[in-house]
Amino acid sequence: MQLFSILPIILIFAPLALLLSFTPYLTRETISFGVTVSEYNYHTPILRKLRSTFATVSLIGNGMVILVCLYLLRSANEESTAIITGICTMIFIVYWSALHLLFHFKMKKIKGTLTTVEAPQRVKIDTTFRQNKLTYSNYWFLIHIAIIVAIAIISILNYEALPNVIPMKYDFQGNVTSSVPKTYFSVLAINLVQLGIIALMMLVNWSIKTSKQQLTTSNPAKFAAENIQFRRKWSLFTIITGLLLTILFAFIQINMFVPNLVLLTGMSFIIPVLIVIGAVWLSLTGRQGGGKIRNHQEDRERSKEQPVNDDDHWKLGFIYFNANDPSFTVEKRYGIGWTINFARPLSWVLLLFIIAVVVISIVLTQ
Question: Which of 301, 323, 302, 328 is nearest to 312 (CA)?
Fold first, then answer.
């Protein structure tokens, strides 16, 4: 079994399986499997058991997928490794999605049996929220761009020293598996990928800053402070992720001039793992939107008042579609992060841009 074929499964799939399995514990205390509930009901025994059941079933299922994948990879070559990993990834995604939908519809049935307080819906907001520094500035990405420009200049200056055929991909034994004729475009293609990634990261950072403010029924000052902290830490993570990816692609490009397969392989493995582990760690150390995962309040201290109910705008519990909402991005209802308002045409443009960046990056690095 090839070491570099199983390590990504262990160090990337395993943390993701852990994160996805405990997602119901990471959402706001007013959301249960994509359904609006009161803070009091969120901590009732029936919903505690529902979250526990989901986590158990998810961990068992995802664990089985990972074990089967490792078993199949024990004697696979590079070509079959890519196929096996791709199939296992699809099974991983489909299984978790099906599990989410099953528990979402189960939660909708349970909601009708929960205790609610009959009262007019009301919210309290912090009108100074937008006056705070919600994210780190996109100017930090100038560091990333400076690295890209520097590597591009070095590549142009050393263009004549390159061989007529440039190796692009290697197998686990260091043999070249893909190469392209030397042209300025093939040499600078990686820089175009880097610029696309940075543009995408800047868009994510902008989305974090401009996403719709969530409303609360109590203690708006604390609610806003936690949300600001939540946005800033994910903004910082976005900037650091962009820098790590810029460095990774810089190593790939420098390898054209100064081949060092051991260093390149190490960086190609370490950086993605660091990003995944960082995302999982951030997710498991705080709730969606801010606040602690473990809430030590007494039941009598938790609000029984029903929060703002916009379930009708959340299709299947995670797809936001509200033509009356001018917001382009909103916090995810299920999971950690942000999503788009699919009812806004510009949101589809942003989605297509993201897909285009990913597709072009894959094509240019083949």
Answer: 323
| Per-residue pLDDT tens digits for 292-317 | 776 655 555 566 667 777 888 999 88
Contacts of 189 (CB under 8 A, 6+ apart): 364, 365
Tell me how far apart the alpha carbons of residues 69 and 361 are, in angstroms, rounded to a whole number. Answer: 27
From the DSSP assignment, how many helices (H) and strands (E) are in the chain?
Answer: 11, 8
Cβ pair 243, 144 in contact under 8 A: yes
Continuous H helices in 73-163: 78-111, 141-157
Beta bridge partners of 166: 180
β-pairing, 165-170 with 35-36? unpaired
- 273 vs 148, residue with greater confidence: 148
Which DSSP state fits 322?
A: -
- The partner residues of 279 in beta bridges, in order of sequence, read none
Using CA atoms, how far apart are residues 182 and 192, in angstroms rounded to an integer? 16
Query: Which residue is it, tokens 């993201």?
Result: 354
In the 8-state DSSP scheme, what is residue 327?
Answer: -
Whether residue 119 has pLDDT greater than 60: no
Mean pLDDT of the 16-29 span = 88
pLDDT (tens digit per residue) in 160-215:
888 787 776 655 555 666 677 878 888 888 898 899 889 989 989 998 998 888 76
Burial of 329 (0-12, 13-18, 19+ CB in 10 A): buried
Which amino acid is present at 137?
Answer: S
- Three-state DSSP at 329 gives strand
DSSP, collapsed to helix, strand or coil, labels residue 199 as helix
Top pLDDT among 312 and 9 is at: 312
DSSP secondary structure letters along 263-321: HHHHHHHHHHHHHHHHHHHHHHTS-TTSS-SS----GGGS--B-----GGGEETTTEE-
Give the amino acid at 263. Answer: L
pLDDT tens for each residue of 336-359:
888 888 998 888 887 887 787 777
Model pLDDT, residue 356: 79
Instruction: Give the integer Cα–Cα distance in Å for 226 and 286.
Output: 10
How high is the pLDDT of residue 1?
45
